[in-house]
Design goal:
mainly alpha
C-alpha cells in the first residue's frame, strides 16, 4: 500500500488544478477562497488566483487577492506578490488612480528591507514622472537616496534624467544627496 503525503499545501494545489481544469469559475473561486481563509496558500497560488480573476475581467477582485497575499507573507517571500501587484495595477490603471497607486507604492516600500527598496522607488518615481508631477518624482528620488543602502545611492541619483537633474537638483545638491 502506497503512503499518501500529508501536506495540506500539496493537496490544496492539486485540488485547485483539478477545479480549474474541470470545474466552473465559481467553484474554482470557492476553492481558492477556502485556501486563502485557511492561510495555507503558497505565493504561487495567490498569483494564480489573481491571474484567473484577471482573465475573467474581475480586476478589483484580483487586486483584493494581491492585498490578502501581501498581508499573509513577509519579506523576502512577499516580494513576488508586490512586484506582480504593482505592475498589474499600473498596467490596468496607468495614471487614472494616482492616489491609490501612491498608497500601494508607499505600503510596498514601508515593508521592504532597505536592500529591496531601490526597484520599488524607481518604479514609483517613473509613475510620478509619467502621470504625476515632476516635484513629486524628485521627492520620491530624494526619499530613495535616503532609504537605499549606500552602494545604491549613486545609481538612484543616476536614474534621474539629466534634464531633471539640471532643472531640479544642482550638482552640489546631488553630491550631497549621494554622500549621505
Amino acid at each position: 500500500m502506497m503512503k499518501l503525503p500529508k501536506s495540506s499545501r500539496l493537496w490544496s494545489t492539486l485540488y485547485v488544478d483539478l477545479e480549474e481544469s474541470f470545474g466552473t469559475l465559481g467553484s474554482s473561486r470557492a476553492v481558492y477562497e477556502r485556501i486563502l481563509n485557511l492561510r495555507i496558500a503558497p505565493i504561487q497560488i495567490i498569483i494564480n488566483y489573481a491571474s484567473l480573476l484577471e482573465e475573467h475581467k474581475y480586476f478589483e477582485d484580483a487586486f483584493k487577492v494581491y492585498e490578502k497575499g501581501t498581508q499573509m507573507f513577509k519579506y523576502p517571500h512577499v516580494k513576488d506578490i508586490w512586484v506582480t501587484y504593482l505592475s498589474k495595477f499600473m498596467k490596468r490603471y496607468g495614471g487614472t488612480q494616482m492616489e491609490r497607486a501612491r498608497a500601494l507604492f508607499e505600503d510596498a516600500i514601508k515593508v521592504a528591507p532597505s536592500d529591496a527598496k531601490k526597484p520599488l522607488y524607481l518604479q514609483f518615481a517613473k509613475l510620478e514622472e509619467d502621470y504625476g508631477l515632476a516635484k513629486r518624482a524628485m521627492n520620491v528620488y530624494h526619499e530613495a537616496i535616503e532609504a537605499v543602502p549606500k552602494h545604491d545611492k549613486l545609481s538612484v541619483y543616476e536614474s534621474i534624467s539629466p534634464a531633471q537633474r539640471r532643472d531640479l537638483v544642482s550638482p552640489r545638491q546631488g553630491r550631497y544627496m549621494c554622500k549621505q
